[in-house]
Write a structure and sequence with these properties.
Layout (H helix, E strand, L loop, with lengths): L6 E10 L2 E11 L4 E5 L6 H8 L7 E6 L2 E2 L5 H7 E4 L11 H6 L14 H13 L15 H14 L4 E5 L7 H18 L2 E5 L3 H7 L2 E6 L2 E6 L1 H4 L2 H8 L3 E5 L6 E5 L18
Parallel strand pairs: 3-8, 3-9, 6-7, 7-8
Antiparallel strand pairs: 1-2, 1-4, 4-5, 9-10, 11-12
Protein name: ABC transporter ATP-binding protein
InterPro entries: AAA+_ATPase (IPR003593), ABC_transporter-like_ATP-bd (IPR003439), ABC_transporter-like_CS (IPR017871), P-loop_NTPase (IPR027417), Siderophore_ABC-ATPase (IPR051535)
Membrane topology: Peripheral membrane protein
Length: 277
């Protein structure tokens, strides 16, 4: 494996206590692309993302950032180039939206560095992009789940990193806001060239928005490549245990998974209220 991508793993093994979760995973994250990690619950998706962000120390193998083991690099140095939105982040009690988003600028500031015009512009742009600017003075703990999620994404965007890792960024968002948020992230990738890695549950949205898909099952990579290469009936059956048909999405022309499920007999017609009298 060469150093052709900025972020990659070599035979990475991760776990907690006596439980091994990710097994000898080698993957290169394509630079400047949107990569989505998919798989069933408890297959190691979030653990892999935490490993990439150096929140979980490898039990074997290595995570490389620019060809160097990420755990050997200073925390602040890593934070300038790699941002992370974890699952279910917790805000300090009473913090307002603008202050939370502003915390994304901390890696760019020294001990004695004052808030700069660049910092203010980055925070304002992040809030405008995520439609949270009008919430700037609101306390985060007073917001709805969907509003809070957009604020957290704004903080990640304000960090202004070249690499952005997002664990379930569409959590708590209704379907309209899910599409809106994924559109935003793809636009960010196109405009800034930001390399984005996301964990998503929705396979069809993953296929629509990803340039590169990584399918995990039981902590191992089952398939990797473009959505057309990964989202096949055989792979979906292997990874999710789901009988399915894959057709073309009529809007995006990407693979669309249609679950087959079990045959359910037709239900008897309901009696009209008049017939019961």
């Amino acid at each position: 494996m060469t150093h052709s991508s900025r972020l990659q793993t070599r035979e990475l093994t991760l776990g907690y206590a006596d439980r091994q979760v990710v097994h000898e995973v080698s993957v290169e994250i394509p630079d400047g692309k949107v990569t989505v990690v998919v798989g069933p619950n408890a297959c190691g998706k979030s653990t892999l993302l935490k490993g990439l962000a150096r929140l979980v120390r490898p039990r074997g193998g290595v995570v490389l950032l620019d060809g160097e083991a990420i755990h050997r690099r200073p925390t602040k140095e890593v934070a300038k180039v790699l941002g992370l939105l974890p699952q279910n982040p917790v805000a300090p009690e009473g913090v307002v939206v603008a202050d939370l988003v502003g915390r994304g600028r901390h890696p760019h500031q020294g001990v004695f560095t004052r808030w700069t015009a660049e910092d203010r512009a980055a925070v304002e742009e992040a809030m405008v992009l995520t439609d949270t600017y009008e919430l700037a003075d609101r306390a985060v703990d007073e917001l709805s789940g969907g509003q809070r999620q957009r604020v957290w994404i704004a903080m990640a965007l304000a960090q202004g990193t070249d690499l952005l890792l997002l664990d379930e960024p569409t959590t708590y968002l209704d379907v309209a806001h899910q599409v809106e948020m994924l559109d935003l992230l793809v636009e960010l990738n196109a405009r800034r060239g930001t390399t984005i890695v996301m964990v998503l549950h929705d396979l069809n949205l993953s296929a629509r928005y990803a340039d590169h898909l990584v399918a995990l099952h039981a902590g191992r990579i089952v398939a990797e490549g473009t959505p057309a290469e990964v989202v096949t009936e055989d792979v979906v059956r292997t990874v999710f245990g789901l009988d399915n048909r894959v057709i073309e999405d009529p809007v995006s022309h990407t693979p669309l998974v249609v679950p087959v499920g079990r045959h359910v007999p037709a239900r008897p017609a309901r009696l009209d209220h008049q017939e019961l009298r």
